[in-house]
Amino acid sequence: MTFLRSVLIALCLAAPMSASANDWHRLSEPGVMAIMRHALAPGTGDPANFTLGDCSTQRNLDERGRHQARRLGAALRERGIRFDRVLTSQWCRSRETAELLEVGPVVDEPELNSTFAGRGDSGAQTQRMREIIAAADGRLMMVSHQVNIRDLTGQSTRSGEVLLIREGEDGIEVVGEILVAP
User: Fold this and answer.
1) What is the mean pLDDT of the chain?
2) What is the largest CA-CA distance in the chain?
3) At what angle do helices 122-135 and 146-153 cross, to 10 degrees?
4) Which end of the chain has less Cβ packing within 10 Å, N or C?
5) Domain regions of the chain by residue span
6) Which residue has the higher pLDDT, 55 or 8?
7) Is 24-40+55-179 CATH 3.40.50.1240?
8) What percent of the chain has a predicted confidence (pLDDT) above 70?
9) What is the reported pTM?
10) Does residue 1 surpass a pLDDT of 90?
11) Across the chain, how many H-helices and E-strands are there?
12) Which runs of E-coded beta strand occur in 98-161?
């Protein structure tokens, strides 16, 4: 009985990690944009010798993360979803995620760079992201980091998770989620 109970608990805990949210239809609604946490890059933060533009000094996607990004991109394309621009953090794991999606032209956006562990200016970057979103013309996707997305939306994300957002009366509102497990 104890073994069976342990297995059932483990399955219940694992289920949300493999489940896919399927709010795909929300992307066709006016004003809805996508903001994604980069795909799976094991670990936390970056090494002390982190250098922007030098991927060998950064925490990067592993093969599961690359597979996750490709699968999400394929799922978007299968549904006919493409973006006019895919803005990305300049961190290698975010840029690689954005490129592997293959859903639109990838453009570096420093305001999406990580503010984890005191990097960047969280308040200023969040404000500038709100301005970018307000001025967005066409279908927009952004690839960033958990801390930046939480600061913008008030919601945490898992690796590779996409939040579907729009401007609301009280700021950015989350209207849906998409997750393709690694």
Assistant:
1) 88
2) 58
3) 70
4) N
5) 24-40+55-179
6) 55
7) yes
8) 88
9) 0.86
10) no
11) 5, 6
12) 106-108, 140-144
- 87 is written with which tokens? 């803005």
Exposure class string for 147-157: b at 16+ Cβ within 10 A, else e: bbbebbbeeeb
pLDDT tens digits for range 5-34:
443 344 333 333 333 468 999 999 999 999
Distance CA 122, CA 128 (A): 10
**Secondary structure of residue 12 in the 3-state scheme:** helix
The end-to-end CA distance of the chain, in Å, is: 32
Euclidean distance between CA atoms 65 and 75, whole angstroms: 15
Give how far the C-alpha of residue 46 lies from the chain's centroid of Cα atoms, to the nearest Å.
Answer: 17
Q: What is the pLDDT of residues 59-91, one digit of tens each?
A: 999 999 999 999 999 999 999 999 999 999 999
What one-character DSSP code corresponds to residue 174? Answer: E
Express each pLDDT in 141-152 by its tens digit: 999 999 999 999
Q: Beta-carbon neighbour count of residue 109 at 10 Å?
A: 22
Instruction: Name the phi and psi angles at 80, rounded to 5.
Output: 75, 20
